[in-house]
Amino acid sequence: MFAFLLRRLGQAVVVMLVISLLSFSIQDELGDPLRELVGQSVSEETREELREEMGLNDPFLAQYMRFLRGALRGDLGVSYFFKRPALDVILDKLPATIDLVLAATFWILLFSVPVGVFAAVNPRHWFSNLAMGLSAVGISVPVFLTAIFLIYLFSVELGWLPSYGRGETTEIFGWETGLLTRDGLRHLLLPSISLASVILPLFVRMIRSEMMEALEAEYVRFARAKGLREGRVRMVHAFKNTLLPVITVGGVQIGIMVAYTILTETVFQWPGMGFMFLEAINRADTPLIVAYLIVVGLIFVIVNTVVDIVYGLVNPAVKLTGKPA
Amino acid sequence: MNAAPHLHSNVLRSLLRDRTAAVSAAVLCALLLAALGAPLFAPFDPWDQTQFDIMDAEIPPLGGGADARFVLGTDGMGRDMLSAMLYGAGISIVIGVFATLLQAAIGVVVGLAAGYFGGRLDSFLMRIADIQLSFTTLMVAIVILAVFQASVGLRFYEEYALVAIVLVIGIAEWPQYARTVRACALAEKKKEYVDAARVIGLPPFTILRRHILPNTFSPLLVISTVQVANAIITEASLAFLGLGMPVTKPSLGSLIRNGFEFIFSGAWWITAFPALLLVALILSINLLGDWLRDLLNPRLYRR
What we know:
Helix content of chain A: over 70%
Helix content of chain B: 55-70%
Largest sheet of chain A: 2 strands, antiparallel
Shape of chain B: elongated
Strand order of the largest sheet of chain A: 1-2
Distance between the termini of chain A: 14 Å
CATH architecture of chain B: Orthogonal Bundle
Radius of gyration of chain A: 24 Å
Shape of chain A: globular
Number of domains of chain B: 1
Order of helices and strands of chain B: HHHHHHHHHHHHH
Number of strands of chain B: 0
Largest sheet of chain B: none
Number of helices of chain A: 12
CATH class of chain B: Mainly Alpha
Number of strands of chain A: 2
Structural class of chain A: mainly alpha
Oligomer: heterodimer
Number of helices of chain B: 13
CATH topology of chain B: MetI-like fold
Strand content of chain A: under 5%
Radius of gyration of chain B: 23 Å
């Protein structure tokens, strides 16, 4: 068990190193940091002096090591645009994105399990056909289109819901959230539904197909033969086993959801990390771009590692030894 | 996995029996024909700026009592929507198909090598695939294209956007193929016909190409449909963020981005028509893919 943990953590560290190296090498490609800092008016000699002083003439690897040491201390550089530490800027925007992801996850959990299980148990029912049809459409409509459609219908035509921003927020324990006010929730409704619309169909389909496969399995037939009630066979025997793959894929999907927040936040001008990232790209605000990549990479890696470990704990078939399988 | 033998027989009959699949196939064929034949059918050339006039901007589609020249109306530059959409669909399809071919090329080579030779090579390649998969394609594409756009300048970018997008989506998604092909190769290499081929002294490359590769085709076909649809969605999303095809040579996604600016002023058609076309295209590919998967995987869900 301990060896498994160590191996998994080692892998996570390697991935983070790769991410940091790639993010850092972007810095060279996007403009000259000196010009961003001092402008055009400084003479060539002062410029060269400053370059030397800031270490911009050092070899790549030396610069990277310095960046890495800074990153470990939580110093990811200073945003050109905001003139503040990049990490602080991101942490300011993080709560808005987390609100959005939480609300979308809520929709997904609320609908995917009952609908998926129902469709597996009653494959010929009209509701199952409807649900599967809708999920095929859901997979085929890009997130930003869902978002535009919702805005057009509910904001432009009907005027029921706001089309941009977060609305009123409250602060609890230093966490600025829109989940506790009516206005905040009204603003959250459309963005969270469009974010959920990408992942929800995938979950419904996956839960349905895993559940159908489980219902065909020997142990389910045996449980029935033993005379257990159908409800118990379905929920305790079949459903429990469909949860395993759902955990793994679910974890990956959370990572994907973070990427999709860029699209959703852009359409709704939601003041979160994703919208900030796109603005940073348009402003060529390199330190902020690099910091965003590192923070998001870290979120991915942590989620994936936790999912792997949970999966290893839940699934008795995974050997928790240090040896590769 | 091993469902290939009856692939060519009965396919057409099965397609015609399944109403959803038949309709999807018809829609997809019509769209392909219209998009790839766009230079023949389209009333205007949407890539030629001299052909449109700003005075024609934002004309609503027919039925709104407007100009008979523009069946589906015009956009903010006075460009005919129908022509722009036909050409745009062509670009979206080209990107989807070529990006998928690139993924398949890389993925098949890596997957065959990993599955057949096994051992260290296998764990090394699959580790790389895991790492690649842990970066979402959309995210990778946004970053790379943004850097590319910033470092080469907009004019050059407009010229080479198509190639760049195909490369990025193609390279970011290869693990999907590599994993599938590897799983097949692992299963196939244990079979007797591979042993027989080895015993008569065929070199590994020939065994892989002539014996194992053909047996991976049916799962490859199934993921290919999904991958083409996903590549088209990814390009559309990138275009919406301003990182896909430029407005001068718009894909369906660029047209939608272009139209979004007008949606609050009531010019809904600039967004709605390309959006409908995009969804019809992706939906028909996905539904055909679903049908294909059920066809090639008869083991599942047939009670």
